[in-house]
Fold NADH:flavin oxidoreductase.
Amino acid sequence: MTDNLFQTYALNGTLSLKNRILMAPLTRCMADDELVPTQAMADYYARRAESGLIISEATIIRPDGQGYPNTPGLFTPAQIDGWRVVTDAVHKADGKIFAQLWHTGRVAHPHFYQSTGSSDVMAPSAAGVEGSVPRMRELTYQVPKAVSIEEIAQLVQDYAQAAANAIDAGFDGVEIHGANGYLIDQFLHHDSNRRTDEYGQAPENMSRFALEVVDAIAARIGNDRTALRVSPGAYFNMAGDNRDRAVFDYLIPELEKRDLAFLHIGIFDDAMEFDYLDGRASSYVRSIYNKTLVGVGSFTAETGSSAIAEDKFDLLAIGRPFIANPDYVELVRDGKALVEYSDEMLTSLV
Ligand code: FNR
Ligand code: 8K6
């Protein structure tokens, strides 16, 4: 029984979703070399327009946010025009789509933005990650530069400009990527934020950058079109720290006051438990956040439907199964068998 997934859902005064199944943001590394979305990407997203809301693959706000090859951008006129082709195709197929706005922070690599002449990697603190860029193993991560107060102000502006560009490109709203160990998340965890100024140490300070980005974007495009993804449980390119709990205890109620379109958990498997969160990330957020919450992470339609019935979250995002099944929503609705996802599917855009 998955009937509840097919109820309409009013996100806020402006947006009504035709069902509760979201397509999760999925990096595919298929933009062209100018980081412009292609026609193949427009076709790929349009095939998934039966979902209540598509969240685009993470899209960089400026050149030094790039950490993987051929990830799309939203900072040049050509990129905005390319995205307009995508949003037109999705709207024509009666879908809705948000842009996920991304800066990878210390996981960026100057290899990708050497044409800008900059070789700096921007992060809260000069604390690097081990290892190298996936599928480009010769590129080892660099020790980042701790951003100055002026650079932080510029980053906030650049997020807001990218959000305005997203609206210009026809997106229905934006999801700020505040999860999975990238720039915003780096401010929110002690492993990556060792600052001693007004952006570090205390929960209010460590939450400051995230809230500044949220507020700048909401002021530019409206709180009702602004959403955020967070990972209270550190799990990707990040070591967890018991002190991180207090940061999210402060941040999440602050977000609730902003009346955003939704809050989305960033995780691969919602069954993961974090001792400092007393369990799952989604249960922790649900206990202190009373507005629209999106759950994700290794759910099937059946387990996701049950979680919604049990009030664990309001909307279900589906990632890998949507790569394997462009017609995921129709298959679930008709009770038909799904194709199982495998990593080899990442090499082509179907
Ligand atoms: C992801 N995920 C992800 N998350 C995000 O916030 N932005 C992104 O661009 C990506 N990119 C991405 C690419 C690929 C290939 C995978 C598999 C995952 C995480 C994704 O949104 C989701 O949280 C997880 O895939 C867990 O959901 P499923 O796949 O178990 O339904
Ligand atoms: C090419 C860059 C893509 C960036 C997004 C990450 C995609 C990873 C896909 C593999 C999924 C495996 C799950 C790994 C979970 C890590 C948490 C412990």
The longest helix spans residues 149-168. Residues 27, 29, 68, 134, 235-236, 268 surround Octadecane (ligand 2) (CB under 6 Å).
